[in-house]
Design a protein that fits this description.
single chain; 146 residues; alpha+beta; Ribosomal Protein S8, Chain: A, domain 1; 21% strand
Length: 146
């Protein structure tokens, strides 16, 4: 947590970091919440800035470690809101695909967000999902089941 507070201080943003949990069973490491006046700056477009900040924090925390941990950062509960929005999007797109019979390809998104779409629709009776593309332009396609 000290690394996060030092980075925020150096960045000159009016925020504070607090420890939500020291060991999250899903992520395998601590989750740190960041709140404050400038918190929106730390999220960035579709969470890009937040992902970059989390990447830097993990590099710094694990630079001399033999047993690395995965630190997860969340700003103003952004990750929960984004996950909810992605689940709702997945269900809406699945209904469109089921009624039209035509596949729909979503915009490019990071692996963690694609995973939410895949998991949300994994047991859907009428559609299936597939990731296509390479690198930063990987997309999820929602297709009718045959």
């Amino acid at each position: 947590m000290e690394v996060v507070n030092q980075l925020l201080k150096i960045a000159g943003v009016a925020t504070t970091a607090t420890l939500r949990t020291a060991h999250d069973s899903q992520t395998g490491g601590p989750i740190i919440d960041i709140q404050g006046e400038d918190s929106g700056l730390l999220i960035g477009r579709r969470g890009e800035t937040l992902r970059a900040l989390q990447f830097v924090v993990n590099l710094l925390v694990n630079r001399n470690s033999n047993s690395p941990v995965r630190v997860v950062l969340d700003v103003e509960l952004y990750r929960q809101r984004r996950e909810k929005a992605l689940r709702e999007l997945a269900m809406k797109v699945a209904e469109k695909v089921a009624t039209s019979g035509r596949a729909i390809t979503l915009e490019p998104m990071p692996a963690a967000e694609r995973r939410i779409i895949h998991l949300t629709l994994a047991n859907h009776p009428q559609v299936t999902t597939q990731s296509t593309g390479v690198g930063n332009i990987r997309k999820v396609t929602v297709m009718p089941k045959k």
